Amino acid sequence: MADTASPTRTIRKRERTRGELVAAAETLVAARGIDAISIDDIVEAADVAKGTFYTHFADKDDLAAAIALRGRMELEAAITTLNRGVTDAGERMANGLSTSLAFAIANPIRARALLRLQPRAVDPAEQMNAGLRGDILLGVKTKRFWAASIDAAFATVIGGTLSAILRISDTNHRVADPHAFATDVVTTLLVALGLKQAEAKRLASAAVTARRKEAKS
């Protein structure tokens, strides 16, 4: 009798090996950058044969793209779910920022690798930034935010967020209380967008606390 479970086991094994390659590459990229590592480095770290690498990825750039896509899609999906039905630009922004920072707190290696693999993360025209740009536009349109220009507001928010992610994901010099730091960052960015300090603090605290509880559940 044929072993009907074999195809399923084969798929699971393939997915597991692919995940091991991605995880090994993320660690190496976070520490050294994609240009400073080789396929030999990756397969050695993943403890697989070099030929196995090519059954999953065409080359190192293909693997890098897979790492970046996985992280970006995970973040976008989480933020989209949180903001479904939320119409207030301040709350939407707090949700988005707290989610990005919570990702860095929970996954410092992945977060650092993701930043290294997205050199155009600061480009407001990039598709990955459509959500953030849209929330800024909504805030300005509804007069929740103030900005000298949309691009200036975008640069302020993305710059502050990326810097905070780098700080949080620095495993050699850890932030003493990353959740308090995340709350301060979100508060500061909301104030920069024009919210009053008290309201910014309230929204930031609520969002970061919610992300922390979600991570524990």
Kindly describe this structure:
- This protein is mainly alpha-helical and 217 residues long.
- The protein is 73% helix and 0% strand.
- The chain has two domains: 1-57, Homeodomain-like (Arc Repressor Mutant, subunit A, Orthogonal Bundle); 68-216, Tetracycline Repressor, domain 2 (Orthogonal Bundle), CATH 1.10.357.10.
- It has ten helices and no strands.
The average pLDDT value, as a whole number, equals 90
What's the CATH C level of the largest domain? Answer: Mainly Alpha
Shape: elongated
Structural class: mainly alpha
CATH H-level superfamily title of the largest domain: Tetracycline Repressor, domain 2
Helix-strand topology string: HHHHHHHHHH
CATH T-level topology of the largest domain: Tetracycline Repressor, domain 2
DSSP strand content? under 5%
Helix/strand layout:
Layout: H1 6-32, H2 39-46, H3 50-56, H4 60-82, H5 89-106, H6 108-116, H7 130-141, H8 150-168, H9 178-192, H10 197-216
Helix pairs in contact: 1-2, 1-6, 4-5, 4-6, 5-6, 5-7, 5-8, 5-9, 5-10, 6-8, 7-8, 8-9, 9-10
In short:
The chain is mostly helical and 217 residues long. Helices cover 73% and strands 0% of the residues. The protein has two domains: 1-57, Homeodomain-like (Arc Repressor Mutant, subunit A, Orthogonal Bundle), CATH 1.10.10.60; 68-216, Tetracycline Repressor, domain 2 (Orthogonal Bundle), CATH 1.10.357.
Notable characteristics:
mainly alpha; Arc Repressor Mutant, subunit A; 217 residues; Tetracycline Repressor, domain 2; 2 domains
